[in-house]
Design a protein that fits this description.
The chain is of the alpha/beta class. The chain has 2 domains: 423 residues, ANL, N-terminal domain (Rossmann fold), CATH 3.40.50.12780; 101 residues, ANL, C-terminal domain (GMP Synthetase, Chain A, domain 3). 31% of the residues lie in helices and 24% in strands. The protein contains 19 helices and 30 strands. The two termini are 30 Å apart. The structure holds 5'-O-[(S)-ethoxy(hydroxy)phosphoryl]adenosine.
Length: 629
Amino acid sequence: MPENIDTLLKESRLYRPSAQTMAAAHIQDYESAYKKSIADPEGFWSDVAKELEWFTPWSKVLEWNYPWAKWFVGATCNITYNCLDRHAKTWRKNKVAIIWVGENDQERVITYGELYRQVNRCANALKRLGLIKGDRVTIYLPKVPEQIVAMLACARIGVIHSVVYSGFSAPALASRIQDAEAKLVITADVGFDRGKVLNLKQVVDQAVANSPTVVRVVVLRRQTPAAPLSGPKEIDWHDWLKDEKAVCEAEQLDAEHPLYILYTSGTTGKPKGVVHVHGGYMVGTYITTKYVFDLKEDDVYFCVADPGWVTGHSYIVYGPLLNGATILTAEGKPDYPNPGRWWNLIERYGVSIFYTTPTAIRLLMRYGEDWPKKYDLSTIRILGSVGEPINPEAWEWFHRAAGGDKPIMDTWWQTETGSILITPLPTVPLKPGSATRPFLGIEADVVDSAGNSLPANAGGFAVIKKPWPSMMRTIYKDPERYKTYWNTIPNCYTAGDICHKDEDGYMWFMGRADDVIKVAGNRLGTAEVESALVSHHSVAEAAVIGKPHKLVGESIKAFIILKQGEVESPALIQSIKDQVLHELGKIAVPSEIDIVPSLPKTRSGKIMRRVLKAKELGQDLGDISTIED
Ligand code: WTA
């Protein structure tokens, strides 16, 4: 593994919270709250857990048999009881839980009471098919409310859901169904993507043909006339639910009972089935949603993810519902039918919390600031970013676009961590490009490969030093692979990300350890070089890789997408190189720059640098089941 990563990026801007943000915040003084939380993490987490409802209490907060953790030992609970019953019992039963907008602008508004009834009907229907606690169900649905209903219905009766993003191909879906040995697949006839109709049912037909464990397929038919089904294996969603009762008691589950499996791409080989459980995951997603987004009763919370990814699981479905929030969720892409789509939705529904990704922000930047300017965005209070390092340029743009005075929560976490771990709270002073500080109860550090803490500004591995409630419990059917997360660096959870801490303890993520480029004895993270590239006024997006070089070890090759209207020329390439020289120094200047129309990305928007590299070097591309095109 690489050692001593060089840090070149210097960012000195600091944004302090406004008086308004300060006045509203749940956590006024991060420093003292953090100190208190890590002096006694188990005390902190058990106090959080007490804000939720449990059927029976725990006898022990944490049982830690390195690297295996159990949280809230002996307790019983059900995450859906806290997402639904806890609210449906109170005045919140008539509060809006979900506002859904389809790609064609169709709107559906679902209250907590109605969501409770729909989930219960679906849970009863699952039971009628003979599904029992511990069985697995694959959900391959577009971003429609039924996707959320199906997830919660499974969880309600202790069935383990495996949501597969509806853009995946038949072989990718089949491998996930087979690994989970799912008995049931829930799908739709079609999904929509920038006006195109995606035939999902066809994909499922192919995948199920090779998946002998699947006994039934439920199909949500969105088109008229409805496509024919071949019974009895295939059932229509509405027929399936129509005679079911709207009451189904939540199963009382052990806190450690699995809630879901979510497949995440490994860099090579087959995808990993990350397993999360009811109790700890519920506690982690609940409190991070509440504190990071400073959630209040009257907020309208808009997260653009898809429940096919972990961000959708934790911050569209579970975290916000645990808090009784009003969630806006919209099918479709940020630039369809035009690049004003999201700003328009924010204006239309009075969104106050807006959580998105650097990739989407960079995409919207390409179309310029006139788009957000067309809309009234004054309801926004808090912004969020997740999924990749947000380069300072994109940070500044997002900040300006949304009004110039709303704090951006740059939240660092992973499928494996379940909930946000490194993040500002709204009252923490912000530095553009830094995910700032650990969340309460989380001990994070930057270390060398032996696990020694590194001094300020030295680059190394981001690690978490103690278990936390929402951590994954295992990799499905592959415990050895789980152990590598805790064995790579002694006594730490290793995220595979490189990072440095500055003098103020702020954490700056610099990319994946696997992507580090070694130039003439220096080790550079991809994020810094890419950030310098996109700080050039003509550059929309950039990805860099290292290429073997006889003299310097590796040389840097950059792939660049230009902003709309920019034209490639030798002078432009030179001025981009000069920009990197100016921002980071000679060592980081790419020796080659290719202008490209698009970059290989995962369907969740992350650049796949290893694919660029394999292609460049004429090597095997490895597992590309998650690639967008
Ligand atoms: C990257 C997404 C920098 C990181 C929730 C991590 C980030 C991987 C950030 C996990 C951030 C996510 N700053 N990098 N704020 N958020 N990452 O599993 O490399 O899809 O390891 O989970 O995304 O991706 P995953």
